[in-house]
Give the backbone structure.
Amino acid sequence: MDSIGQTIPVVILCGGMGTRLREETEYRPKPMVEIGGRPILWHIMKGYAHHGFKHFILCLGYKGDSIKQYFLNYQTLNSDFTIRLGEDQHPALHRAGPTEDWTVTLVDTGQSTLTGARVKRAEPHVKSDTFMLTYGDGVADVDIRRLYEFHRSHGRIGTVTGVRPYSRFGELVVGDGQVKRFSEKPQVDEGIVNGGFFVFNRKFFDYLSPDESCVLEHSPLETLSRDGQLMVYQHTGFWQCMDTYRDFLALNDMWNKNPAWKIWDK
């Protein structure tokens, strides 16, 4: 699994404006909003890395420069250091911070580009036959290894992780483990919904358009499900997105207690 994890990239959507979280996203992109002093993006990546998936492709847009700066300065941001100003030299680290063995590719996919087009524009950086995809604002204790093995077992183009939280997210109409219909804005209070944490064969890129109006959750996933090529991996554990300021407060409160998504040791 370790070699597979280095080969199969995890594409993360990091470009949205996060308008329902304006209290925080006016100054930074939603993936950089912090839980317990770390960006939610870091929490998502730590979860994947725990399962051996350490090759990331970040689809940037709104305030993407701040995400670039975060990774360019990752070591110094998390360490004590001394630097001699006026000289071209690296800082001398005293208390070394985390040394993640991640490969991170940062791709500017456009300021106003919608989700499907962002994924399509990242295609040149996906070299493998299989890739993972998730949103930059949701944490979970999904067993990524089991998710990957499930995807391999059914042989279809796509797998979406189904969860049971809020009705405001896209409902998955499921039969015999297959997504029969992908309904983005259902008017129901129950049912399995799209929790992200996708796995795709690269054939899925044929369902996407680089046109900035292409929405992942509309025509691409709806067509994939009509073609019988989208399966659901049902996750009954913890899942929570950070869609609103209330979610932000709740996740930080959880972090201070016993965060269910913190599956890594350090």
Q: What stands out?
A: Residues 2-79+101-159+196-218+243-255 form a domain with the Spore Coat Polysaccharide Biosynthesis Protein SpsA; Chain A fold (CATH 3.90.550.10). The chain has a mean pLDDT of 87.
